Amino acid sequence: MDLDEKFANMATGKTYNDLDPILVAARDRSTVLTNEINTENDKEHKEQLIRHLFGSAGVAPDLNPNFRCEFGRNIHVGDHFYANNYDAVILDGAKVTIGDRVLFGPKVGLYTSNHSFDAREREIGGCIAKPITIGNRCWLAANVTVLPGVTIGDDVIIGAGSVVTHDIPSNVIAVGNPCHVLREITSADKTGFTGQDLI
After folding, report:
1. Mind listing the pLDDT tens digit for each residue in 31-77?
2. pTM exceeding the 0.90 threshold for the entire prediction
3. C-alpha–C-alpha distance, residues 176 and 164, integer Å
4. Are strands 113-115 and 126-129 parallel, antiparallel or unpaired?
5. How far is 196 from 173, CA to CA, in rounded Å?
6. Quick check: is 115 catalytic?
7. Per the residue annotation, which of 52, 80, 115, 166 is the catalytic one?
């Protein structure tokens, strides 16, 4: 079974062997590429490296150091994805889909995989992965953790330190552990900022 077949099997939600040598080699490749990305200062070359690492990427993806991911190939980002602060982690045992103009604060973590609950299965490498989906124009603030199987809608803000254990609808601010909807985002949240203002 090659890597693509293994990823297809993992995508079914069945238990897989996290210690499989093919998966270990794929993680090693990801480590090499993320090391390069994290030290690259040339924007154009950095973007090329990101496209080589990710399954797909839209216009102008950007990652600040130290970005880490498990495989990379299961990550698909839209236009202007920006892990604009530091130390983002994406463990992509299953597919991770991120929409357009999504911002990550520092130390955001997306974790599609979970170790087996049975101690013996866990010891010999048992894992299960479920996909994560994040909609367009979302902002995940500092230290947000997103767990396996979660879908976050469009235009969502997830407050700092939140642990997202279940789906979050569009156009809301959600906070806490476990993360819950605090309120909708409304026209009252507009400040009149146009991007032309002088700082």
Report:
1. 999 999 999 999 999 999 999 999 999 999 999 999 999 999 999 99
2. yes
3. 8
4. antiparallel
5. 26
6. yes
7. 115
